[in-house]
Write a structure and sequence with these properties.
The chain is α/β, with parallel strands linked by helices. Helices cover 33% and strands 9% of the residues. The protein contains 15 helices and 12 strands. The chain has a 7-stranded mixed beta sheet with strand order 1-7-6-5-4-2-3, sandwiched between helices. Strands 10-12-11 form a 3-stranded antiparallel beta sheet. The longest helix has 37 residues, at 363-399.
Length: 526
């Protein structure tokens, strides 16, 4: 094994001392194979493809013309293929097993969606094509916009944001544009953010120059209504509230909160990352929400990224819809077209705050999301929320006697536990998570939300079967009982069976090794 593969890792792949298995000459353990860096596979003379020597040409690079080798690894095609296949086998994925990350909604991505996204005429369109040649794509975007507005009860939408946090920024920029139009931007400088909101909410407000004012949570894990009302004032621009919140709970006072915000002349931004829990059941527009982003990967099953940027469309109330960014799709007498300039928008009766992206957004994600919507129908999308909530409450009820839950009563789409059940065992939340790796599971979200000490947030999603959830529950029960029975070594040394043992995480974070260099030549013995 190379020196690079040991850097930042105090222990290597589990051996005889950890697992009871024999050491091997290669360092491999059957199908679990050691894999050096691609640069360490460099073999002079090897090449995956041959190029002809370039002919005479005029360079325009001047002094910037390269003088030496680029330094790319010289590797044959079979070696390249094996390298990346072996690396991919070390990744955990939703296609490999249950992925219990709370707040992330790691649901199955239906293969039908992938097939649709790869159809000729969709997968090969280019954003600079003349619009008359992509009428089908524009119609698809219009149809997706229609369903997002229908499902949320909001009259406006923009598709262009590339992620949830990007969507948050978009929604808050629309709020700022509305305040500028009212001549109140200099007055309203404060944004209220509950402690139970997603961490990106205060970051977004701060990025736009607002002062962030935290709202405490009640002992039930929800917004403290009286504390919230006491913070309202003429300098408040908006509230950024996550619902259902990061404790997996629905904010029961959301209508009262919306009414109070509007009465104070401010706007209501709702983080819609957890829309998966209420889609088809509750329309945020009916609750008084002014702007909300929607993670297409969480609610509508598109991959997290999908080979490129994701998508975080934002829906708007009637008050904010005129300020939605460019571009957006309209259907006129000459067919579908993108409104791309402020002049076109003014003629259309809107005043966009600007543009979030170079083009129209992530077309591949739009196709996948609409495919998911149409294959489910309105009744199927309602069942998505019902099954997600049912699975999470099944986990909560099944584990409440072995783990410890910080809040009483049922949850929404995710079940939250704390570390009280580990008290006196010498096992910490992190140790518990590492032991889950040996059992073949990616750990749940750890130490988040911050309002709960030693938090463990589990979201089984609606796509997991009862059989899969039952095995996961039984595994956590076994780990919890092992921790209480003083089987400490099972945890503090875990993971034993992963390709690498536990990292020195502090060292890896503060002194990361980000660049590979060839090893120094061995010194001749004196």
């Amino acid at each position: 094994m190379s020196g690079m593969n040991k850097q930042g890792r105090p222990t290597s792949v589990g051996g005889a001392s950890a697992t009871g298995t024999r050491e091997t000459f290669t360092g491999n353990r059957a199908l679990e194979q050691e894999e050096p860096l691609l640069f360490e596979l460099d073999n002079p003379g090897a090449c995956g493809v041959d190029f002809d020597e370039p002919g005479e040409f005029t360079s325009h690079l001047g002094n910037f013309e390269r003088q030496g080798r680029i330094g790319l690894a010289r590797v044959s095609e079979p070696e390249v293929m094996r390298h990346f296949v072996r690396l991919s086998a070390k990744n955990y994925s939703i296609d490999a097993g249950l992925y219990p990350l709370g707040s992330c909604t790691m649901k199955h991505n239906p293969r039908l969606n992938e097939k649709m996204a790869r159809l000729p005429g969709i997968s090969d369109v280019h954003p600079l094509q003349p619009q008359q040649t992509v009428q089908g794509s524009l119609e698809l975007m219009s149809e997706l916009s229609h369903w997002l507005k229908e499902l949320t009860g909001m009259p406006g939408v923009t598709l262009s944001p590339k992620a949830g946090a990007h969507g948050e920024l978009c929604g808050m920029m629309a709020i700022r544009a509305a305040l500028i139009a009212r001549g109140e931007d200099d007055i309203r400088t404060r944004v209220l953010v509950p402690e139970s909101a997603h961490g990106t909410n205060p970051a977004t407000a701060a990025l736009l120059g607002y002062k962030v004012d935290a709202i405490p949570a009640t002992k039930e894990g929800r917004v403290d209504l009286e504390a919230f009302k006491s913070k309202l004032g003429p300098d408040v621009a908006a509230i950024m509230l996550t619902n259902p919140n990061t404790c997996g709970l629905f904010e029961r006072d959301i209508v009262k909160i919306a009414d109070a915000v509007h009465e104070a002349g401010a706007y209501f931004y709702c983080d819609g990352a957890n829309f998966n829990a209420i889609v088809g059941r509750v329309r945020p527009g009916d609750l008084g929400v002014d702007a909300m982003h929607i993670n297409l990967h969480k609610t509508f099953s598109t991959p997290h990224g999908g080979g490129g940027p994701g998508a975080g469309p934002v829906v708007f109330s009637e008050a904010l819809a005129p300020f939605a960014p460019l571009p957006y799709v309209v259907n006129g007498k000459d067919g579908f077209r993108l409104v791309e300039t402020e002049g076109e928008a003014e003629a259309d009766g809107t005043t966009p705050f600007g543009r979030m992206t170079a083009f129209h957004g992530q077309m591949g994600m739009f196709v996948r999301a609409l495919s998911y919507m149409l294959s489910h129908g309105s009744d199927g999308l309602r069942q998505v929320a019902e099954d997600a909530v049912l699975n999470a409450n099944y986990v909560l009820a099944s584990l409440k006697d072995d783990l410890s839950a910080p809040f009483e009563g049922p949850c929404m789409h995710e079940a939250l536990f704390d570390d009280r059940f580990l008290k006196g065992t010498g096992v910490e939340t992190l140790d518990f998570a590492k032991a889950m790796i040996d059992e073949g599971y990616h750990p749940m979200t750890m130490y988040f939300p911050l309002v709960v000490h030693g938090a463990m947030l589990i979201e089984p999603t609606e796509t997991e079967s009862k059989q899969a959830v039952d095995l996961f529950i039984a595994t956590l029960k076994d780990l919890a009982r092992a921790a209480r029975s003083n089987d400490k070594d099972r945890f503090t040394g875990a993971p034993y069976m992963s390709p690498r043992r536990r990292l020195d995480e502090t060292g890896a974070a503060r002194k990361p090794v980000l660049r590979w260099a060839p090893p120094a030549p061995a010194q001749a013995a004196e």
